[in-house]
Amino acid sequence: MTRSVCELLYELYAKTIVLVTYMLIQLILIIRYLKSNTPPISTTQYLSFIEEKNPAIHCTTRLKAEHIDCRVCLSEFQEGEKVRNLNCRHTFHKDCLDQWLQQYCATCPLCRHKVLPDHVVANYNLLQNQVQEEEEEYDGNDHQLIFLLSALRGGSTLHTYL
């Protein structure tokens, strides 16, 4: 009986340590966010900035003669479709390029020429990282708790649980 009470108290202690550590990390992240001069850029703002720097145009017969297909989706351009013609002279479907620029670095898919300034991309990625961190929060899995405790205590906790 005494052993199970000790184990229960130790488990409660360990989970409390993890919770306090998690709360401290969140507090540090909030403080860093509040200290930063530039807030993260939302997806809507990011897409607006892309539109401002590289406005979408409708594909014309003349443009279609110069650029046969979109190198992201590999589909031929159709007259009237919205496309973006970058400063590096590469042309893509508007939606294909917008998706590329949101998922990867803000560079041309072909030549890697910068499409947007670094500070805009960094602020957008800051928001994406915050969203990803929120999605990856602790889900109550005991294995994650064991490894977190092991890391916090220099590896000795793992052997205690096994």
Automatic annotation (TrEMBL):
Q: Name one Pfam family in it.
A: zf-RING_2
Q: Which UniProt keywords apply?
A: Membrane, Metal-binding, Transmembrane, Transmembrane helix, Zinc, Zinc-finger
Asked if the Swiss-Prot or TrEMBL record annotates the protein with the keyword Membrane, the reply is yes
> Any transmembrane segments, and where?
12-34
Record SUPFAM superfamilies: RING/U-box (SSF57850)
Annotated ranges, domain RING-type: 70-112
Would the keyword rRNA processing turn up in this protein's UniProt record? no
PROSITE patterns membership: ZF_RING_2 (PS50089)
Organism domain of life: Eukaryota
GO MF terms, alphabetically ordered: zinc ion binding
For this protein, the record's PANTHER family field holds:
RING-TYPE DOMAIN-CONTAINING PROTEIN
* Protein name in the entry: RING-type domain-containing protein
Instruction: Identify the species of origin.
Output: Phaseolus coccineus
